[in-house]
Amino acid sequence: MKKVAIIQSNYIPWKGYFHIIQDVDDFVFLDSVQYTSRDWRNRNRIKTPSGPKWLTVPVNAGRGTSIREVHIDGTGWQIKHYKTLRHNYHDCKYFDKYHDWIEDVYLKRSWQYLSQLNQYLIVAISGFLGIDTRFHDDSEYPESGDRNLRLLNIAKALEADVYVSGPAAKEYLDERMFEAEGIRVEFFEYPNYPHYPQLHGDFEHRVSILDLLFGAGDDSSQYIWGDRP
Asked: Is 202 exposed, middle or buried (0-12, 13-18, 19+ CB in 10 A)?
């Protein structure tokens, strides 16, 4: 039974995003849809001694711009994000394990488009988590109709038996359209994730996956979908 998910790329997403990726056989970045500001597309949260802090990628996005078309505005943010991560996580047990990669991402590479940055980070982090899901971009598939039809046609092209969607899509997804084509819709439900070693006060689940990687290293997947420690 082949499972497919089709979701917009986000900036260093939380662990639940990667749980969906791990749950499916094929994952498609839906970056042809309109960019939404003040969302997870260009920002995420990390833990700091003074509470959760936003890391935001500055972008230049006009009205109606798709995620794929969004330009990153400048390069100074890269040094800022690197220094912020290092300052707040250098005491984590596994920060050094990922330091060279973080340095490469923020200090040795340049990023022109938000989608390019997000997709690179998500694929790389999936590798750290041992995920073997196949990745695709929705630009690989012809444009077709409204959002429901677009999702359905991509799922059909990938010969999906099950379409896995985030819970927020319940508001707009036409399940009957999928069922008519023999594709079952599953709305992913995030479980009660266990706590992992985390710095800076009360435990916070809704932070970037980097928080988990720095705290748990190679055992990170055990705190998402593995046997509960």
From this structure: exposed
In the DSSP assignment, the letter for residue 108 is I
Beta strands (DSSP E) in 75-195 are 134-137, 162-165, 184-187
Q: By the 8 A CB rule, do 114 and 41 touch?
A: yes
**Global pTM value:** 0.96
The whole-angstrom separation of Cα 147 and Cα 158 is 17
The rounded radius of gyration (Å) of the Cα atoms in the chain is 18
Residue 117's nearest CA partner among 128, 109, 107 is 109
Q: What is the pLDDT of residues 176-226, one digit of tens each?
A: 999 999 999 999 999 999 999 999 999 999 999 999 999 999 999 999 998
Q: How far is CA 98 from the centre of its chain?
A: 18
Query: Across-strand partners of 184?
Result: 162
